[in-house]
Every structure is written in structure tokens, then in C-alpha cells.
């Protein structure tokens, strides 16, 4: 093999590793490993690893949790911080900065959340699983974009833009739902202290530019600590810190040189850690659902999640998008037809990360959480396969004309 061939091979590998497909594939592999491990003769080791307790503190300030709790409360706070940075950037200067451009994504996201919730509640009304209504409303942006990336140029770029914007709006609403509906036993003092630290970070960013990443990190850790003890989920501290992180003069003028503003530096600096460490570890410790108990796929909770993701998502996305366009409140981008929107609605049914996360908030252990996770994994995989197949058929049909 010539040096030129080797260089070409290494370039292709680097492009794949840095692309959306590799991120999604890594999460799939992590989730598959967890599922197989949890149903293997070594399942006891998986449970022991998840339940391993770790303590961290300074003086009287101490946090002691199991490994899976550290991941869900700690590492996922970093994930939601990066999500918050992306939401802020998109609304201030990105795809959602123009009301006209954002309208289709907003309506699609609202429909794609309301209808799955309705589907879930119809199946679980009055039962023990009603609190899981938030599980099927989420869309996993990274997973969905990795699936659509497999189609390459056969899918119009405008469809990827709509899916990205939809997922961002979906994430924003999901964060609000987590903060409002899945908070438990509010401690006003801890909540006030956390919000006070966030306010101090806002003042620092507003008046002094917030250029020190280290100082912003200190604000974030302290805000997270108090939020953890407030009854509101600790990840909300990550979102709030993202919203007060300044864009910086460089970002606002789109002069993002080697350094850029604080938001730009943090988003791009943390993104690889989230994609290649935090999300795979989260999948590894949360997707290990045992099939030996809990009732399987034919329980109300699992069925509610599956129906919500596979039926509710595409119906909601397509239905409200169609209504909005008919009323003149939104319009389909160039190159995107209603057939492609059906495929997009199916890809929006890939819940995975956020759905698994909400499952841990809705159900505190027991069979119900396993049912919700099993429904999430099944619905997400089937939605990915159906969405990919439909969009591939549409691309071939368009290419044959």
C-alpha cells in the first residue's frame, strides 16, 4: 500500500471518527454491551459495578452516591450544560434565531412531544406507570443525526437542518419538563443558594466578560452541589450555567479564531468529551435492562413508550407541521416533501439518551424502570430502522426520476 493510499485511509478514518455516525455507533455499541451484559451469567458484576458507592467532598461538603448516580447526576450535568450552550447559540445566532426559520421546528417539536404523551397516558391512565409520561416525548439529537448521516448526500441538507432544529427545541422543552414535573421534595434554601451562585455567574459574565473558564467552572460546581440537594434534578444547574455563559465579543461578531468567546470555547472543548465518554458511559450504565423480570414488552409502561415513540412521534411531527403550513405559520424548506417529513418524524422517535434519563427520574428502581427502558430501547431501534429505510427509499425514488 502506497503512502498516498495510507494517507487517504487515515483521512477517511479521521472523518468517520469526527462525524455524527461514529458518535451514534459508539452509543449503540455501549447500549448493546450493557444489554448483553445485564442478561449474561455475569449480570451480577454489572449490578455490582452500577451500585459501587463513591464519595467526594471537602470538609463538611460531601457527596456520596452510587456509580450510576454519579453518572446520571454528575456527568449528565455536563451533557445538559453542552446542550444548553447549543440551545443558546442556536436561538441567538443560529438556525432558530429567525422566527420564520424556527417556526417549523417549533411546531414539529410541540406535536412530536404532545402526541406521544397522549399515547402513553391513554395506555397507562390510572395505573402505576402514569408518572412515566415524559419518557416517550424526547428525541435523541446525537442518535437521530448519526442515523441520517448514514444517508450522506442522498438526503437534502435542509432536512438535516430541520431535524437538528427540532431536536434542539425538543431538548429545551424536555429540560423544562424535568425541572418542573420531576422535581421532588424541594429544599428552598439549597435551591436559593444554587440560583444565587448562577446569578453571581451571570453578573460575572455580564459585567466582566466571563473570560475565565476556570472561574465559570467553579461557579458551575458550586451551583451543581446545591442543586443536587435542592430537590430539583442536579442537571438543571448545568442548563442554567449554560444560559448565563456569555457568548463573548468574538462569538457575536462570528470571529471565532483559535480562542473565540467563552461559549464557543466551552462548547467545542467539551463536545468530544460528551460524545466519546459521557454518553457512552451513560448508555453502558443505564441500558442494561434484564429480561428475567418486570413483565417485558407487553406491559402498559413498555407499550406506552413504544407506541409513543413509533406512532405518536411521527403523527405529532407530521400533523402539527402540516397544520402550521396550511395556516401559513410555517413552510417546508426547499427540497423537503411530506414523504421526507414522515421519515424525519420516525427519526424523531429515537428517544434513547433523554428517554432513558427521564426513566430514571420517573421511576425509582423496580420493574417499572426496566419496562420504561426496555420500551425506550425497542422503540428507538425500530424507529431508527424505519426512518432510515423510508428516507433511503425516498432518495432512490427521487434519484430514478
Report on this structure.
- Helix content is 72%, strand content 3%.
- With 401 residues, it is mostly helical.
- Strands 1-2 form a two-stranded antiparallel ribbon.
Sequence-ordered SSE layout with sheet pairings:
Layout: H1 3-18, H2 20-38, H3 43-51, E1 53-58, E2 61-66, H4 67-93, H5 99-124, H6 141-149, H7 157-181, H8 188-208, H9 213-228, H10 235-244, H11 248-252, H12 262-286, H13 300-326, H14 338-347, H15 352-362, H16 366-399
Antiparallel strand pairs: 1-2
Helix pairs in contact: 2-6, 2-12, 4-7, 4-10, 4-12, 5-7, 5-13, 6-7, 8-9, 8-10, 9-10, 13-14, 13-16, 14-16, 15-16
Précis, in short:
The chain has helices at 3-18, 20-38, 43-51, 67-93, 99-124, 141-149, 157-181, 188-208, 213-228, 235-244, 248-252, 262-286, 300-326, 338-347, 352-362, 366-399; strands spanning 53-58, 61-66. It has 401 residues and is mainly α.
List key phrases describing it.
mainly alpha, globular, Na+/H+ antiporter like fold, 401 residues, two-stranded antiparallel sheet
Number of helices: 16
Mean pLDDT: 84
Percentage of residues in DSSP E strands:
under 5%
Number of strands: 2
The helix/strand series, from N terminus to C terminus, equals HHHEEHHHHHHHHHHHHH
Q: Calculate the terminal CA-CA distance, rounded to whole Å.
A: 40 Å
Share of helix, binned = over 70%
The assembly state of the depicted protein chains is single chain
**What is the CATH architecture term?**
Up-down Bundle
Largest sheet: 2 strands, antiparallel
Strand order of the largest sheet: 1-2
Structural Rg: 21 Å
pLDDT < 50 runs, ≥5 residues: 5-18, 250-258
Q: Which fold does the CATH topology refer to?
A: Na+/H+ antiporter like fold
CATH superfamily: Na+/H+ antiporter like domain
CATH class: Mainly Alpha
Classification by helices and strands? mainly alpha
Give the total of domains: 1
Shape annotation? globular
